Amino acid sequence: MLKNHPKDDMITALNLREPERVPVAPYVDYTYASKISRRKVSEVILGSNELKASVLLQAYERHHYNWIMVFDNPPRDWRQNVTIKDLGDKYEVQNKDAGERTFLLPKDGTSIYPVGDVTVENAAERFELEIVDRDDILREGRCEVTKIVKMRAGSEALVTAVVGAPFGEVLLRLGLTQGATCLYRKPDLVRNLCDLCLRRYIEEAAALSEAGAEAFWVEEVFAGTDTISPKHYEEFALPYERSQVQALQRLGKPVILYFCGNPMPIIQNIAKTHADAFAFEENKKNIDVDLERIKDVLNGEACLFGNFDAINTLTTNPGEIEEKVKQMILKIGRGGGFVLGTGSPITKTVQPENVDAMIAAARKYGRPSSA
């Protein structure tokens, strides 16, 4: 008879030991969670923090995986400071303060955040203004979703807060073309912006930790070698990843570095961030993410998340899903230090029964005694 809560198995795996059964940690954000709660994504994004927490909790209660991902939420009174325009199939959300970020929100799809919303001339000023002290973040209610989820499910599931990574944020905000140009022509600007971003994320992480986050999921989205060169990764992205991991670990919480794009030519350097765990995208974009090779590089010093294919395999059928889970666990999931995750967020096209099949297969084949 199994004795542990889902959270216990997750903590055991992150500590590089073998749990009673392989934990399952799918990337579930508001897109899939809204489907489970039978709401439109825009209704959740534009709704209260209580509603945001509720849909995440409903998805967890439907599937009972081993963690719950939580996301930063806007200040408690944010709706008073924005104008929302109905554009038919989407909303345009614009801050009333001139120059603030605008984003488009499909009525039933993923938010489209602006790429290239700052310029070389105003980026430093904008980034500086976005740094908010931990106490102010808490006072503004920007961690309420985390507080609610922790209070209601924190005894059973590992509450894991999602934060960005400095380099990826800088490239996103400058825009890929302008950002890549700055790597060559204005490297000091890139470093300055990364420094400012790092300061912001450290304050946000401190607030999230105070609110109840028990682990951090750091998303590095534009540092793969399909986007920048290995030299630029080592010079611009790696130092900030390492500093961020160390700062978050000083909060006493494990850090999972989620790396998008091609990691293989730089996997030795990625490992030098010394994160507690690493997660990667599934094989796509003509990129082969070799988890067996990555496991060899990590050499038992960090937990590895399996990048189960959320885009193709998870949309097939329970039989194929079970077989793929079985093969992944047999290849890289034995001996501890392994979590079955998804390489991308689960979309609303995925049937809940398929998520059930993935979890059931992990618990069937992911026990120490399983053949």
Question: What is the first-to-last residue Cα distance?
Answer: 18 Å
Strand residue percentage: 5-15%
CATH fold annotation = TIM Barrel
State the helical fraction.
40-55%
Widest sheet: strand ordering:
1-11-10-9-8-7-6-2
Report the CATH C-level class: Alpha Beta
Number of domains: 1
CATH architecture: Alpha-Beta Barrel
Low-confidence stretches: none
Return the structural class: alpha/beta
Order of helices and strands: HEHHHEEEEHHHEHHHEHEHEHEHEH
How many β strands by DSSP?
11
> What integer value in Å does the Rg equal?
20 Å
**Major sheet, described briefly?**
8 strands, parallel
Based on Cα principal axes, name the global outline.
Answer: globular
The count of helical stretches stands at 15
- Report the average pLDDT across residues: 94
Describe the structure.
By secondary structure, the chain is of the alpha/beta class. The protein has one domain (6-75, 118-365): TIM Barrel, CATH 3.20.20. Helix content is 44%, strand content 15%. The chain is built from 15 helices and eleven strands. The protein has helices at 6-14, 30-36, 41-45, 49-63, 123-129, 134-139, 144-153, 166-174, 176-185, 187-211, 230-249, 267-271, 291-298, 318-332, 352-365, and strands at 24-25, 67-70, 82-86, 90-95, 102-106, 158-164, 215-220, 255-259, 277-280, 303-308, 338-342. The strands form two sheets. Strands 1-11-10-9-8-7-6-2 form an eight-stranded parallel beta sheet. Helix 8 (166-174) packs across helix 9 (176-185), helix 10 (187-211) packs parallel to helix 11 and helix 14 (318-332) packs parallel to helix 15. The protein is globular and about 55 Å long. The model has no long low-confidence stretch (mean pLDDT 94).
